[in-house]
Design goal:
Strand order of the largest sheet: 1-2-5-4-3-6
Strand content: 25-35%
Number of domains: 2
Largest sheet: 6 strands, antiparallel, barrel
Number of helices: 4
Number of strands: 6
Radius of gyration: 19 Å
Amino acid sequence: MKGFPKTLKTKDDYYNCLAMVAAGELKAADLLAKIEGLEKQRYIQCAVVKAEEAKKAVTIYYCDEAAEGMAFVSGDVSGTVTAVTHTKSEEAEVAGEEMNDRTVLTLSKGIAAGSTVIALEHAEKVAGMDTNDIAALKGVLKKYE
């Protein structure tokens, strides 16, 4: 990524890079990769143990940060977490463990039974940008691809 700034910490940094793309000093694909990486920082990626589409419930490995009202994304489905319950799996019971090792999330929309990951939003903004700012940047970048 020749010509790329060493750090991108603020909204202005990203817009300066966009100006560099417009001037031909930076590849649009390089900036897009950085923006997508930034977008991922907003989420906690949780491995799905079991998904029950009909019940709009998903079991993940223990996640203390999971909370009611959090936004989620899994594949092309997004919504909010309506309830959170921390539980102990049968394996943990048999092993005599005392701590919970699973988290059951009740969701506003069901996710596919074969889903392997659910992303829980833990920050509305990163680098001073919200979802709309990031979408706008990506939209402008499409002109330069």
